Amino acid sequence: MISYFTELDRGNVRLGVAGKIRTGAHALKTLGEGVDWVMLGRAAIIHHDFPNQLLENPNFEPTSLPVSREYLAKEGLGPSFIDYMGAWRNFVAD
Question: 3-state class of 58 per DSSP?
Answer without folding.
Answer: coil
